């Protein structure tokens, strides 16, 4: 019996020995491999304390020399970029502000139609919470009063998805007329009821059949959510989206009925725009909290080809990336595959801003060549820092402000609208730049002491 047991042990020893030799060989080989040198994550929130954690491009697998060349090209071509931020793996590797704009000045930027992408995110949250029934929910059911005279069967068939994908079928010639007084968006803004104005437009085709860019459709989404939850999209964002991301420095305009504009009117600082991009790159998860459902992130950034462009649920698409885009070159670009987020604020007028910002992003994406750290490139980093310095320096001296600017700076001005309705604002000038900061004031009427004014 003892001999039999020893024989069994001997048979087992041979394969165990082979496995041990293989393991020793693998460990020795692995020890010789280059070690991934990335800055260690110090927090599950990459902007702990309000500031993004930073790293060098090479530590996050990006060529700094190529980023330096991107910045140089932007300045040589006089592309009117205001800010350019790059985040990879949750680290801010480049933050460039072009004079007279300055990092940390606290000025929020009008992001225009980037607002639509934020509205899309909040729509997904509202659906997940049951405030909206789903993407197949009929739109007119939320507006019984506003739609009682709109009996078109095609209009009654419009769904939430049709609004999200810009396929409402409404006759809305926004893209055919330059933005200005003659554009339908301006007509909507000037109307006494923007929701009613949008719903009153005739149908040009059946919903869900053709792409037609429509800022009014995005506004309907905002109004639908407000009808259901009782607060506007600004307040909803503060609770459900901006709050978890520690976004506090923002403004969001409302229409005459107090509905947050769903298609425009949001102001953000670039660092907070990057937080939105990071959230999407991270499948809606931040600090262990699922802020946006991962399924919504996937569904809303699944693109359909439309008129030569790719479009999802109020997000545009590129080659293996997607982006939020606003007039004059505002953008939040996200490449989940490369864990890359790029933010731009701009005032591009002479060329197509979407083409220009996509060119810049494509070059940055191409510079992100490795998932592991690259060798230190002191020369490339120095070149990049020099381009950042040149960008932040005024190319010409800031002109002396006129005497009138000093006289009106800081004063409060009231504008009479109708009857006893007033609006108020202040303009604050600084001798450091020729840019004035506009502060809107809310007027609260009180019968006992007249009126109070508070900053918005």
UniProtKB/TrEMBL annotation:
TM ranges: 12-33
Keywords: Hydrolase, Membrane, Transmembrane, Transmembrane helix
Keyword Hydrolase listed: yes
Record-annotated Beta-lactamase-related domain positions: 83-351
Organism superkingdom: Bacteria
Pfam family for this entry, one: Beta-lactamase
GO molecular function, one term: hydrolase activity
The protein, known as: Serine hydrolase
Organism expressing this protein natively: Paenibacillus foliorum
């Amino acid at each position: 019996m003892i001999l039999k047991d020893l024989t069994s042990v001997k048979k087992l020893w041979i394969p165990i020995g082979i496995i041990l030799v293989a393991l020793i060989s693998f460990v020795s080989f692995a020890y010789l491999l280059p070690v991934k040198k990335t800055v260690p994550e110090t927090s599950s929130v990459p902007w702990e304390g309000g500031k993004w954690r930073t790293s060098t491009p090479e530590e996050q697998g990006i060529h700094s020399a190529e980023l330096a060349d991107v910045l140089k090209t932007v300045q040589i071509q006089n592309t009117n970029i205001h800010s350019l931020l790059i985040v990879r793996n949750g680290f801010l590797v480049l933050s460039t502000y072009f004079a007279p704009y300055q990092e940390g000045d606290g000025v929020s930027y009008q992001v225009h139609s980037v607002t639509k992408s934020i509205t899309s995110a909040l729509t997904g949250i509202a659906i997940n919470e049951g405030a909206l029934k789903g993407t197949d929910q009929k739109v007119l059911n939320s507006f019984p009063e506003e739609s009682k005279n709109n009996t078109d069967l095609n209009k009654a068939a419009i769904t939430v998805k049709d609004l999200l994908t810009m396929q409402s079928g409404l006759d809305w010639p926004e893209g055919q007329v330059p933005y200005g007084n003659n554009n339908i968006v301006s007509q909507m803004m000037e109307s006494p009821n923007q929701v009613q104005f949008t719903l009153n437009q005739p149908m040009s085709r059946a919903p869900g059949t053709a792409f037609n860019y429509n800022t009014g459709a995005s506004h309907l989404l905002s109004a639908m959510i407000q009808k259901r939850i009782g607060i506007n999209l600004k307040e909803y964002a503060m609770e459900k989206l901006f709050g978890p991301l520690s976004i506090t420095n923002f403004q969001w305009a409302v229409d005459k009925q107090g509905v947050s504009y769903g298609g425009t009117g949001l102001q953000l600082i670039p660092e907070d725009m990057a937080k939105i991009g990071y959230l999407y790159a991270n499948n809606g998860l931040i600090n262990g909290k699922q802020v946006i459902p991962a399924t919504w992130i996937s569904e809303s950034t699944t693109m359909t080809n439309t008129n030569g462009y790719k479009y999802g649920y109020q997000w545009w698409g590129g080659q293996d990336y997607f982006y939020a885009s606003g007039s004059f070159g505002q953008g939040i670009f996200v490449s989940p595959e490369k864990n890359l987020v790029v933010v731009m604020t701009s005032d591009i007028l002479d060329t197509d801003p979407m083409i220009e910002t996509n060119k810049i992003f494509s070059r940055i994406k191409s510079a992100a060549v490795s998932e592991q750290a690259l060798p230190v490139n002191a020369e490339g980093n120095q070149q990049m820092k020099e381009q950042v310095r040149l960008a932040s320096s005024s190319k010409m001296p800031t002109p002396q402000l006129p005497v009138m600017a000093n006289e009106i700076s800081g004063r409060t001005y009231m504008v009479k609208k109708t009857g006893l309705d007033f609006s108020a604002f202040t303009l604050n000038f600084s001798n450091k730049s020729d840019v004035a900061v506009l502060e809107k004031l809310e007027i609260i009427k009180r019968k006992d002491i007249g009126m109070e004014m508070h900053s918005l």
